[in-house]
Amino acid sequence: MSRVADCRIELSFDDNRRLPLLYGEHNANLARIERQLGVRLATRGNIVNIAGPEHSAEAARSVLTELWRRTSIDHALGPAEIDAVLRLEPRGAATTGTQPESPVIRTRRRTIAARTPTQATYLRAMENNQLVIGAGPAGTGKTYLAVAQAVAALQNGQVDRIIVSRPAIEAGERLGFLPGDLRDKVDPYLRPIYDALGDLLSADQVEKRIETGEIEIAPLAFMRGRTLAHAFVILDEAQNTTVMQMKMALTRLGEGSRMVVNGDPGQIDLPGGVRSGLIDAIDILDGVEGVGIVRFNEGDVVRLPLVARIVRAYARAADAAESAAALARASRTAKPQ
C-alpha cells in the first residue's frame, strides 16, 4: 500500500516577544495541537514547520494563525483557549483559505473571543440584530457573552444603560415574603449576571453604575408598562417565561435599544401544561428581519469537560424517554378496539 506523502508548511511569526505565549511552557501548546490534529510541529526561533496529511497540516496552519492573532489581543494561551480554537477550525474548509476571522468583544478590562463555532455565530448575531435569542444548555456561554456585549456597548456609548431581568419563577414572581429591599430579593436569582459583570468591570464600577442607574437589575414583572429606549436589555432564564410574559418583554424595546433573550429549553420550571415563552418566541420569530436566533447544543459547553458529558447524558436520557413514550403511544393506537 502506497503511503500518502506528508504536506509541509512553514509559518513565520514577526514578534519574538509573543512566541512564548504561542508555544506555551516547554512547547505545551504545540504538543496539544500535534495530538489533536495528528501533525508534527518543529520550531526554529520564530519559524514553525508543520508536517502531516494535507488536510491536517492546513488545519494546523489555520489554528496557529488564529492563536497568534489572539496573543496580540488578549493573554497567555492555556489548554482551554487551544481547545476553543481547535473547535472553531472549520475542518471541511481548511484548504479553501476562506475561514472568517473569529469575532471578539472588546471591553476596557478584557477581550473575549468565541470558543465554539456557535459562540462565533452568536457574537455575529449580536452585532447585526436588534433582538437575539440564544437557546441551549447551561455552560455554553450565553449569559456571559451577552453581558460582555452589553458592557462593550455601554462603554462605547452605543447605549446609555444595561437592563437585566429574569423571571423569578421559583418565587412565582411574588418576592414580598423574602427579607430585604428589592435588590436583596432579586439578587439570588441574578447571581450569574453579577458574576459576569464583576469579571468585566471592577466591583466598584458595578456598584457605582447600579447606583447611577446605568446598570438596572429587576425581576421581569417590573418591566410591564415600560418603554426601554437606548438600553441593552438582557432577559435571562427565559425558558421560564410564559407566552404572555415573553410578548410583554419583547414589546418593551424602544428607540436605540437592543435585546438578548437567553434560556435553556431543557430546564423549564413552569407548571405542567404551561407553554414556555422562549419556545413560543423561537417558533414565531424565526425568519423575522432584525431577529437572530442561535441554537446551542451540548457540543458548545465550555465549562469542565465533565459538564459537557453530563449534558450529553441527560440529552440521551431525554431522547430515550421520548422514544419510549412514542412507542407506548403507537402500541396503544395499534390495539384492536
Short structural summary:
The protein has 337 residues and is of the alpha/beta class. It has helices spanning 19-23, 28-37, 54-73, 79-88, 117-128, 142-155, 182-186, 191-200, 203-212, 243-250, 277-285, 305-334; strands spanning 7-12, 40-44, 47-52, 104-106, 111-113, 131-135, 161-166, 215-219, 231-235, 258-263, 291-295.
List the main descriptive attributes of the protein structure presented here.
337 residues; alpha/beta; 6-stranded parallel beta sheet
Strand order of the largest sheet: 8-7-9-10-6-11
| Rg, alpha carbons | 23 Å
Largest sheet: 6 strands, parallel
What is the CA–CA distance across the termini?
64 Å
Describe the structure.
This protein has 337 residues and is of the alpha/beta class. A hairpin with a 2-residue loop joins strand 2 and strand 3. A 6-stranded parallel β-sheet has the order 8-7-9-10-6-11, with helices on both faces. It has a 3-stranded antiparallel β-sheet with strand order 1-3-2. It is built from 12 helices and 11 strands. About 4% of the residues have low confidence.
Topology of this structure?
Blueprint: E1 7-12, H1 19-23, H2 28-37, E2 40-44, E3 47-52, H3 54-73, H4 79-88, E4 104-106, E5 111-113, H5 117-128, E6 131-135, H6 142-155, E7 161-166, H7 182-186, H8 191-200, H9 203-212, E8 215-219, E9 231-235, H10 243-250, E10 258-263, H11 277-285, E11 291-295, H12 305-334
Parallel strand pairs: 6-10, 6-11, 7-8, 7-9, 9-10
Antiparallel strand pairs: 1-3, 2-3, 4-5
